[in-house]
Sequence to fold (146 residues):
Amino acid sequence: MRMVELTVGQYQSVPVVLDERSSAYDALVSLFMNNIGTLFVVSEGGLLEGVLSRKDLLKLAVGNTDMHVVPVGVVMTRMPNIIMTTPEESLWMAARKLTHHEIDGLPVVKKLGEDQYEVIGRFTKTNVARAFVDIGYGYAGGEDNE
Fold:
């Protein structure tokens, strides 16, 4: 099987989202508790508002800012500057977006309206690695040589 034949929907993970009113401290705790590198920030109605990475929070922490009072909206990347994917997109194209934009994760979205997206999954470098292992496993004749 080729990566262009596989879809994001076959390999996406469960998204970890945070309300836009949350503090940067809450975001930091969520990143570590979920062992992830990227959070998706959503509005009260559940629409994608922004993306927050470990790097964003590190920049804030290095500046000696009180992360308990800074809202995530101050440090997140906002729409329309968010690179997204859909469940129907090819695994190859989504992996290309990750490498081309040098980011760790993409929100997997469902379009609801003009510039309105619901987050339905996440797609990361780990998902690409899992697909790569699955493809290799098929070529290796199903042998697991860990």
Remarks:
- The longest helix spans residues 125-139.
